[in-house]
Design brief:
By secondary structure, the chain is α+β, with helices and mostly antiparallel strands. It is built from 15 helices and ten strands.
């Protein structure tokens, strides 16, 4: 057997040959965590391969006891392969004749058993990945609702979803991505609801990924699947909440799970998917609608407040006399545009610093920066008070955006609008806003219009975006996902 290429090589009938290959290519004897346990059963060699830390050690000990006990309970002429198969006390036992698949499974946390004289090996799923227990995501908290969230274990994540959808048509289609990492990636969908064209597109993109590994997990997958380029606006949505993922699967979306990542990718999504939050569906429809409108106002504020205020400062004639107080009341030597950018970047510095600061200190750091630095900057004349006020309001609007990716994209759009307004005044603001809207309107996320249901306009879908409807009234699934089964509940329930 050559060591340069292992694809499609059969399992050798000699365990010694398998061991030699493991030493040469997989690092047996060099990597401390990759091990083999050699035993003799009915006069034949049996090798058990495993990776410490990825499998349940207690099960390996129990399995060895079962196999060694064969020597006392079976006759030497017994069929060793069938006997071992019957003694594998596990619910997940598979056979393989491919050496490459055997090695991949062992490196994924399964244990492999090679038997002398047999070209078929057993792989047993006893994975026990290190990780944390499910807990509520910090970025998607709710007042009422489930407190469990996804973790870095794909098996646990799919289990959290299946707990909420006990349908025999729920599918978790497994793929492996990365020539070296061989990372597990699963597509979650309802077989009789999800759009087959969308599934085929995602399958094709996953199969076309040619890279050694994806240590950045779902973010790397996103870049390969949607090919976003320099576009700052998110084309897919992330969530760490199992209830949100389950709700989207029931609507007809396809959810992409990636091992080692505590978040999943929801596809397809539009702009309005990024401004929805689970909290809206944990309150009454009236309260949910109010929260949604408040969030919409915060998103609009984060984009247009600063450019609009800068326009009114540069063009005071646009203000009616009753609102003449809006402009700055003090004169400074620093242009207002520079002040806005300095203050805006200052908030971004605070956000980045808070991420890298230990949690017990981050709150104190934020208070010191916001109160002391802001007030001192005003006292020394670096900023006028109005700049701090409006930048703070715009910053709050940024933080009301549920999607972190969308909030950053909106901030970039806001800065571009401020530059256009500063150089071209009213025409710059109007043209910049129009170009921004056209840019979003022409975007497509996996063949899905980004501004649906506003463009193309769909009255029923638009009303569901504006108003949080009661669940008994939401009979149809969103048409944007092209569900094969349009009805979520019987029309008679209307």
């Amino acid at each position: 057997m050559t060591l340069n290429k292992v694809q499609n090589w059969p399992i050798p009938v000699s365990p010694a040959e398998v061991e030699h290959y493991m030493k040469q290519r997989v690092g047996l004897g060099v990597s401390f965590d990759f091990g083999v346990r050699k035993i003799k059963i009915l006069g034949k060699d049996v090798h058990i391969y495993y990776v410490n830390g990825l499998c349940d050690t207690m099960y390996i000990i129990q399995l060895i006891k079962e196999l060694v006990g064969i020597n006392k309970q079976e006759k030497p002429e017994a069929d060793l392969f069938a006997t071992i198969e019957n003694r594998l006390v596990n619910q997940s036992v598979e056979k393989t004749q491919e050496l490459d698949l055997f090695i991949t499974q062992v490196l994924s946390g399964l244990i492999g058993i090679v038997i002398e004289g047999e070209n078929i090996a057993f792989v047993i799923d006893v994975r026990s990945y290190p990780g944390r227990s499910p807990m509520e995501p910090d970025t998607e908290k709710v007042v009422r609702g489930a407190r469990d969230g996804f973790v870095e274990n794909i098996i646990l994540n799919t289990a959290l979803t299946r707990r909420r959808i006990r349908d025999e048509r729920l599918r978790f289609e497994m793929h492996k991505v990365g020539k070296r990492s061989k990372t597990d990636v699963a597509l979650g969908y309802l077989q009789d609801v999800a759009d087959q064209d969308l599934l085929n597109i995602i399958r094709k993109e996953l199969a076309a990924i040619d890279i050694d590994g994806i240590p950045m997990a779902d973010k790397t997958l996103e870049e390969f699947i949607v090919k976003q380029g320099l576009n700052p606006y998110p084309i897919v949505r992330y969530t760490e909440r199992a209830d949100v993922a389950a709700a989207h699967i029931l609507e007809g979306h396809v959810v992409i799970y990636c091992d080692t990542s505590p978040s999943v990718i929801l596809t397809p999504t539009t702009y309005f998917h990024h401004v929805q939050h689970a909290e809206e569906f944990r309150e009454s429809p009236a309260m949910g609608t109010f929260v949604r409108w408040t969030r919409f106002l915060g998103v609009l504020t984060s984009i247009f407040l600063l450019p609009l205020w800068l326009l009114l400062v540069l063009e005071p004639s646009l203000l009616p006399e009753q609102l003449s107080f809006i402009g700055p009341n003090k004169q400074t030597n620093i242009p207002i545009l520079i002040q806005l950018f300095l203050a805006d970047f200052g908030i971004e510095f605070l956000r980045i610093a808070a991420i890298h600061t230990p949690t017990p200190l981050s709150t104190a750091m934020g208070l010191i920066a916001a109160v002391l630095i802001g007030q001192i900057a005003i006292d020394v004349g670096l900023f006028v008070p109005e700049v701090i006020l409006y930048v703070s309001v715009a910053g709050i609007g940024t933080f009301t955006t549920p999607s972190y990716e969308l909030s950053v994209a909106n901030k970039i759009a806001r800065m571009i609008l401020m530059l256009l307004t500063a150089f071209f005044h009213l025409p710059g603001f109007v043209i910049g806003s129009t170009v921004w809207f056209i840019f979003l309107a022409q975007m497509r996320a996996l063949n899905t219009p980004y501004l649906w249901p506003f463009l193309p306009f769909e009255p029923k879908g638009f009303l569901q975006i504006i108003f949080r409807r009661a669940i008994p009234g939401a009979i149809l699934r969103p048409s944007i996902v092209h569900p094969r089964d349009r009805y979520r509940q019987s029309p008679d329930n209307q």
